[in-house]
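User: Hey, my collaborator sent me this sequence without any context and asked if I could get a structure. I don't really work with proteins. Can you help?
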Amino acid sequence: METVEDILIQFEPMIHACIRKLHIYKNHDAFLQVGRVGLWKAWQRYDSSKGDFAPFAYRSIYGSLLDELKKAAIEENIIPAEDQTLEILLNKPAESSLDSEELVNALSQLNLGEQQLIHLLFVDRCSLDEVALHLGITKAGVKKKRERTLLKLRRILTT
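Assistant: No problem. I've predicted the 3D structure and written it out in structure-token form, which is a compact way to encode the shape of the chain:
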């Protein structure tokens, strides 16, 4: 059997094809490495009595990439703790964490409607639909109001 280096050279185009098929355009190098590891695992597990290597390698590479995509999607959807949510949305660097007095002062400069919106979204953790129903506006209106309020908070906190 060939060495893993020979297999890698031969099947590198297959890895790129799988990446294109899965429409992966971000973190290309990381996914390329995941594909290479999938190919290496296929090479280690391959049993020639069960058929050709190419289809087996393709399924292994494709499966490895799918697994990594799932992990990335899960990590993207992790909900931060309540005290981190505003910091993340306000784009504050982690090392310059908001102090609660600073946040209370900034929130007090918002009008009553903006304070209510912040409370519903970040303290009560209401969905956009629930906030829209509570405020009597559309979901799109809630999104726009949230965007403007967070922008206002950013300005207050950076001055």
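In plain terms: Residues 107 and 115 are 7 Å apart (CA to CA). You can pass these tokens on to your collaborator as they are.
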